[in-house]
Amino acid sequence: MLSIRSVLGWQLSLRRSKWLPLQCLCYSSSAAAVEAERTVREGPRNDWTKPQIKSIYDSPVLDLLFHGAQVHRHAHNFREVQQCTLLSIKTGGCSEDCSYCPQSSRYDTGLKAQKLMNKDAVIQAAQKAKEAGSTRFCMGAAWRDTIGRKTNFNNIIEYVKEIREMGMEVCCTLGMLEKQQALELKKAGLTAYNHNLDTSREYYPNIITTRSYDERLETLKHVREAGINVCSGGIIGLGEAEEDRVGLLHTLATLPTHPESVPINALLAVKGTPLQDQKPVEVWEMVRMIATARIVMPKAMVRLSAGRVRFSIPEQALCFLAGANSIFTGEKLLTTPNNDFDADQLMFKILGLTPKAPSFSEDEKSASEAENCEEAVSSSVGNSSYSLVGLPPFSPSGNRFNTKIEKSMNKFSSSETVGSGSRFKAIWDSQSVETFCDLCIKEVELGHRPKTHFTKEGWDNLIKNFSKATGREYNKIQLKNRWDTLKMIGSCGEILLERKPA
Ligand code: SF4
């Protein structure tokens, strides 16, 4: 078996001999590899074409999974998974005809229509969710819209305020929203509004006829304009073609701003609905959707949503690896079954996942991150022999640090909390990665990685020597994250080396 040292050494010798650029360490030229590398280099973009997304989606599944994971690790803390609890606060009796939904009054599913839950019951459920580790509480009501439901809407505004005061993020899914209602929800403290597009524009009329695709997009516009985070995704397994899955992702990825959350649901066919005989979605279909969503919308929280209950822990692990970083917890997802709480706790433990803390004011957070980023960059510039010209251009203008907004957009480099809560970004350009690889190899050769981990002396040397070589004072967590990514690439190299000895 080849060691990581020999693999890294082999990769570097290839690079030095100009056989491979750094980015080609993945040994693949699939569309997933090419577009993931571009996403890492350039950041989120909104000019995707359908053929581009289709070619990512069609890449060999393990390659797609690998590159989804790469983008995921660049854009997020890969161990963090957000836990959201979804409660149906008004169940059944909906006038819409969504073919998958047991809450539609048009289908005989045995579901009894109920009135809006009272405040005590909702707050109690939110409290229970919080105690179970959930950081976002989502309230769903089976309505076409909230027009003409003034009393109920005002009650929901009160629920939002109270749950927000409990220190949780709050999300609602109440059907179509008017602009004024979105503004009122924002004022009450709503974090996000969920309104799924469900499927592609082309396939949509096969699933819903009572409201149009454009009406859905209009609601998303009102939500966005009110300053509420957008949560919008879709469902697979509705009988759609792969082109429709790509079409859904294309619509989401070409919105002026990507949704902050993208739920990917697998249909749970319910008896009595028109889709009751659909065959279950396979995990590979979920992996394709999740990894493609991750590559084309790198900053979004990609949510492994309905249908998760059918997947084992190893299958869910593949979904997290592909780029999912959010789940629904709780006994039910509106009206369909969900994973058991204890089973989720066990899964977190086995997979080494940690619950994501809530984040409240994106505006404030972005501004503060931008300031910290600016400090980190100027300190790097001041001490470094490297220029920032080699760093991935992030803004359309190419001048990454031109404005505060552009700075706040640069959430793409790995970011870790250091010291007493201060944050700065680790920025990895090809030159600093190469330097880091050289230093790692040196430490391995010095015997400072006797087994699978660097010794304390090894890490101390890496921190000191990396700072000396680049002027960038990264801490152990930041360097270790990069090392883990390189190890992942190294593992790929090992497999290929076994197949085709150099
Ligand atoms: S998905 Fe929502 S809008 Fe459609 S029928 Fe169900 S509750 Fe009504």
Automatic annotation (TrEMBL):
Organism listed in the record: Acer saccharum
PANTHER family, per the entry: BIOTIN SYNTHASE, BIOTIN SYNTHASE, MITOCHONDRIAL
CDD domains in the record: Radical_SAM
UniProt keyword list: 2Fe-2S, 4Fe-4S, Biotin biosynthesis, Iron, Iron-sulfur, Metal-binding, S-adenosyl-L-methionine, Transferase
CC annotations in GO: mitochondrion
One Pfam family here: Myb_DNA-bind_3
Family (UniProt): Belongs to the radical SAM superfamily. Biotin synthase family.
Enzyme Commission (EC) number: 2.8.1.6
Name of the protein this chain belongs to: biotin synthase
Cofactor or coenzyme needed: [2Fe-2S] cluster; [4Fe-4S] cluster
GO BP terms in the entry: biotin biosynthetic process
